[in-house]
Write a structure and sequence with these properties.
about 50 residues, mainly alpha, 1 helix
């Protein structure tokens, strides 16, 4: 299994894409992008049947 931080060059590149003024972890919202709010299951407090 590869982790997102196993390639330090990629980590540094992605870190430069962070905009602290936006609620996104990496990148920004561009014209034409569709942002949707979804309800995520909290697997720490609520275990679904398939886990």
């Amino acid at each position: 299994m590869r982790y997102a931080n196993s390639n330090m060059k990629l980590v540094k590149k992605n870190l430069k894409l962070h905009n602290p003024d936006l609620p996104l972890l990496i990148g920004d919202i561009k014209e034409g992008d569709v942002v949707m709010e979804v309800n995520e299951l909290d697997t720490l407090t609520c275990k679904p049947d398939y886990l």
